[in-house]
Amino acid sequence: MKLFKCIQEANLFADYAEVFDFILSDGKFDPYLWDNRNKVKGFTKGLHRLTGWNDSTVQYGSLKNMSFPSMGSWTSMHAPCVYMNQSNSEGRDFLRHLRNGIAHGRTAVYNKEGKLYLELVDYKDASCNTQTAYFLIPLTYLIAVFNLYKSKEQQWEKGKTRE
């Protein structure tokens, strides 16, 4: 099922509206607040604390060393699973691929064992010849990632007001 249709039919729009505004917006990692690598690393470490996020469920590396599942592979995959091309930093790359997959409509939502999962793919460009990401994650990850980002940003804002 398509992402937004699923959100609507499950009466979850109120829970996810602000999350989608965040995911689809520009301006994440504002250099004024996110002014050093340690802050981005802190966000990435927060991702690593998400339930199920570990070295066996997350593949992050060079395109030439990675083989991506295709859209529709969810039936044979154990969730969560994340495959991402390494470009900037794991945290930034995760949000970029999430945004691109949703913005370009390369998503589907599945009910697996009574839980909603988001399947998403991202590509290098519009030709869709070079896949750069595959996610099969609990839909609730979107809220968790949004809350993590906002908590980090609030932490950095407090530090800026003391300077």
Architecture overview:
- The protein is an alpha+beta fold and 163 residues long.
- Helices cover 42% and strands 20% of the residues.
- It is built from five helices and five strands; from the N terminus they run αααββαβββα.
- A five-stranded mixed beta sheet has the order 1-2-5-4-3, covered by helices on one side.
- Helix 3 packs antiparallel against helix 5.
What is this structure's SSE topology?
Elements: H1 3-9, H2 13-24, H3 37-48, E1 58-61, E2 81-85, H4 90-103, E3 107-112, E4 115-123, E5 131-138, H5 140-162
Parallel strand pairs: 1-2
Antiparallel strand pairs: 2-5, 3-4, 4-5
Helix pairs in contact: 3-5
Q: Globular, elongated, flat, extended or rod-shaped: what is the shape?
A: globular
Q: Would you count the extended β strands for me?
A: 5
Order of helices and strands: HHHEEHEEEH
Q: Strand fraction band?
A: 15-25%
How far apart lie the N and C ends? 48 Å
**How many individual helices?**
5
Rounded radius of gyration (Å):
16 Å
Question: Which stretches are poorly predicted, pLDDT < 50 over at least 5 residues?
Answer: none
* Mean of pLDDT: 91
Strand order of the largest sheet: 1-2-5-4-3
Structural classification: alpha+beta
Helix content: 40-55%
Q: Strand count, sense and closure of the main sheet?
A: 5 strands, mixed
